[in-house]
Amino acid sequence: MRLDKYLKVSRIIKRRTVANEVCDAKHVTVNGKIARASLEVKVGDIIEIQMGSNLTKYQVLNISEHATKENASLMFKQLS
Questions:
Q1: What pLDDT, on a 0 to 100 scale, did the predictor assign at position 48?
Q2: Is the pLDDT of residue 50 over 90?
Q3: What is the DSSP letter of 13?
C-alpha cells in the first residue's frame, strides 16, 4: 500500500492530500530514509513524521485497505 494511503487509512494523518503534502515537504522517513508518498509500506516498517518540533515514530503492524475507527489503531504501534 502507498505511504500516503496508509497514513490516511490508519488515521495517523486525517486526509490523504495532507499526507501527500507532508511527504513532499520531506517530513516523513521510513526506516531512516526520506520517503515519497508513493513508497510501498510493508509490515515492520518504522515511519517517522516530523510536524514542527514534534517527532513521532510508528511501527507498521498491519496493512488493510479499509479500517473502521476502532480497527485503525490496530494497524500501527506508536513508538514515541
A1: 97
A2: yes
A3: S
Those residues with Cβ within 8 angstroms of residue 21's Cβ, 6 or more apart along the chain or in another chain: none
Site of grid cell 514534534 = 54
Look up residue 27 and give its three cell numbers. 517530513
What number is the average pLDDT over the span 2-8? 96
pTM attached to this predicted model: 0.93
- Could you give the CA distance from residue 48 to residue 35 in angstroms, rounded to a whole number? 10
Rounded to an integer, what distance in angstroms lies between the CA atom of residue 4 and that of residue 22?
9
CA distances to 22, 28, 61, 63, 76 from 43, rounded to whole Å, are: 21, 17, 5, 7, 9
**Three cell numbers, residue 14:** 486525517
Distance CA 66, CA 51 (A): 25
Residue 12 · residue 25 · CB < 8 Å:
no
